[in-house]
Structure formats: structure tokens, C-alpha cells
Design a protein that fits this description.
Elements: H1 11-16, H2 28-41, E1 50-51, H3 53-60, H4 64-76, E2 80-83, E3 87-90, H5 96-120, H6 123-138, H7 144-164, H8 168-176, H9 179-187, H10 194-208, H11 212-245
Antiparallel strand pairs: 1-3, 2-3
Helix pairs in contact: 2-4, 5-7, 5-10, 5-11, 6-7, 6-10, 10-11
Bound molecules: zinc ion.
């Protein structure tokens, strides 16, 4: 019950979500979860910011109980945390070191998963990957919704590859990192890139050719390039924050963005 973390996330729905209660049927926990998730990934609630259960209960016209349940789910996804006697706060964004470490772990697991998938994927999984890569190559870029659509496809593609590895524990480990949720939140205001689409196509081509070494290499290349793009985005965010906040600028290493306290 509640919202399954196994379902691929619809980032485009989260970006488009307004503050009103949607008309489609949903359990109250799902309603609260989706609304909070939307506010957290689009930073309507700032990183480190207080999450007001009372305000959300009033806004959604529901009791506080489903909101507290939703917050427990979000806590498990490391998007919110509880301070005893104070309440819930939004998690900080990933730091530079955390981005590095997250990709280091992905680089250990996902290239191997791609190699296994090249050997073990069934035809249905390969067709799904092929269709998804084609769809992603036709997507537009340039605004928040486009980036959300890209992030959604990206999450789905990596999930399909790890599932096709045939190793349930690999799939669950990658799933449990909630990689795309955190990357999306981090990059939400940036652009999807045509390069990532090409890198995905290279992975899918190697899988279709049932080429384990090629799939492994293509996945490694893609993750290294992704990490490089995230580092550039982080540099840019720090440059902007530095321009806004500190006239002295300076080469002092900063931890993540300016922290709200
Ligand atoms: Zn990707």
C-alpha cells in the first residue's frame, strides 16, 4: 500500500503539480506523499527548510495523520528528516563529495549490471529498452518540464538495465539509493542534454547486440560523463552563489550550496 518506491517516478507530474487537491482517486497518504515530494524536488520547500504539517493539512484539507505517514516514507528516501521536539525538515542537497561518492558506487555496480543484462535480458526487456531510448531521443529540451521528462526516462532506463541483469539484489541496491530522486532535485533547474541521449543509445545498442563488454564500457562511459556534467552544474551553482553572497569570492572549498539555517 501507500506509494510504492518500485514505481518509476513521474517527475513531469511532480513539476506540473499545483497546490490544489487533485481530482483523481488517491489514498490520503499517496496524496500527501506526492504533494510533499513535488514541493521537495522542485524546492518549493528549500533544502533544510521546515516542513509545516499544519499548513499542508489545511491546504490539502486532510488530517495530519496521512501527512506524518508520508513524511516517514520521505524520510526513508532521505528527502526529509525529523528533529525530535521540532518537527520535520527538508534534506539538504547532495554535497560535492556525496555526488562523487554516489557515482563511485554506481560505477561499481551499473557497468557490471549492464554486462549481465547483455547476457541475460529477455526479448521483452530489450524491446522496452529500445522503445524507451527511441522515445528519449525525440524528447524536447529547454525547460523544467523537459528536464523532468528526461529525468523520468533516465530513471526508467537505468531501472530496466539493472532489472535485466537478472540479479534481484543488484536491482534493489540501485533502487534503494534513490539516485534519480536526488539527482533530479540537484539538477532540477538545468537542462537535459543530447549527449546523455546518445550515451543511452550506445548502452542499448550493445545490449541489443548481446555484447557484455560493450554494454559494460558504454555504461561506464555514460556514468563518467554524467558525473562530469553534475560537477559542471555544481561549479556553476557555486559560482552563482559566490557572486551573490561573497564579494571576496576566493578559492575556498565550499560544502554544497550555501546552507540555510
Ligand atoms: Zn542515464
Amino acid at each position: 500500500m501507500a506509494t510504492s518506491t518500485q514505481d518509476p517516478l513521474s517527475f513531469s507530474r511532480l513539476v506540473a503539480l499545483d497546490d490544489k487537491r487533485p481530482t483523481y482517486p488517491q489514498s490520503l497518504v499517496e496524496l500527501a506523499y506526492e504533494q510533499l515530494l513535488s514541493m521537495l524536488v522542485t524546492m518549493k520547500i528549500a533544502p533544510g527548510g521546515h516542513i509545516s504539517i499544519e499548513a499542508l493539512a489545511r491546504q490539502l484539507e486532510i488530517s495530519q495523520t496521512p501527512i506524518r505517514e508520508a513524511l516517514t516514507l520521505l524520510e526513508a528516501q532521505k528527502l526529509a528528516y525529523k528533529i525530535p521536539n521540532v518537527g520535520f525538515r527538508a534534506a539538504e542537497l547532495l554535497t560535492r563529495q556525496e555526488v562523487h561518492d554516489l557515482f563511485e558506487l554506481r560505477l561499481l555496480i551499473e557497468p557490471a549490471a549492464a554486462a549481465f543484462a547483455a547476457e541475460k535480458a529477455n526479448d521483452e526487456a530489450l524491446r522496452a529498452l529500445e522503445t524507451l531510448a527511441e522515445e528519449m531521443s525525440r524528447q524536447q529540451t529547454g525547460n523544467e518540464l523537459a528536464y523532468a521528462q528526461f529525468a523520468e526516462g533516465d530513471a526508467r532506463l537505468h531501472q530496466l538495465v539493472t532489472a535485466a541483469s537478472g540479479n534481484r539484489f543488484i536491482a534493489e541496491t540501485v533502487e534503494g539509493l534513490h539516485v534519480h530522486l536526488h539527482i533530479f532535485r540537484f539538477l532540477f533547474r538545468t537542462n537535459a542534454t543530447a549527449k546523455a541521449v546518445q550515451e543511452h543509445e550506445a548502452i542499448v545498442s550493445a545490449l541489443l547486440a548481446r555484447d557484455p563488454a560493450g554494454a559494460e564500457q558504454a555504461m561506464r562511459n555514460h556514468l563518467l560523463a554524467s558525473r562530469g556534467r553534475m560537477t559542471l552544474a555544481l561549479d556553476e551553482q557555486e559560482r552563482l552563489a559566490g557572486a551573490n553572497l561573497s564579494p571576496e569570492g576566493g578559492g575556498r572549498p565550499r560544502r554544497g550550496r550555501a546552507r540555510k539555517r
